[in-house]
């Protein structure tokens, strides 16, 4: 109950030794500015390592070939949920990335970035012609 009351009082008695971060619980003192300190999750099969447990867990799926995320429209399967969501846009027609210079819309942000390079090249060419 005392620890829970700290939520209401704002009391944070535990200080990080590496930065100004303070925590209300003792086990939180290893975190500072949203990052873990000296905590790495290392893949046992390759050199990959990360400080984020979720990224490490997703990475492990790549080694065993697991693809638990299935497309609702076709037989495609994916190891990461985000990749499945992006793929689903092919079927739904969703194009959330809009070009600010023309009506072009894209399924992925990288497609829009490539498209914007075309505008830059056109602008450079039109300036050279002047």
UniProtKB/TrEMBL annotation:
Transmembrane segments: none annotated. It comes from the Eukaryota. Residues 41-68, 69-96 form the C2H2-type domain. GO terms for molecular function: DNA-binding transcription factor activity, RNA polymerase II-specific; RNA polymerase II cis-regulatory region sequence-specific DNA binding; zinc ion binding. SMART domains: ZnF_C2H2 (SM00355). The keyword Signal does not apply. This is C2H2-type domain-containing protein. It is found in: Nucleus. InterPro entries: Znf_C2H2_sf (IPR036236), Znf_C2H2_type (IPR013087). Pfam families: zf-C2H2 (PF00096). Keywords: DNA-binding, Metal-binding, Nucleus, Repeat, Transcription, Transcription regulation, Zinc, Zinc-finger. Belongs to the krueppel C2H2-type zinc-finger protein family. One of its GO terms (cellular component) is nucleus.
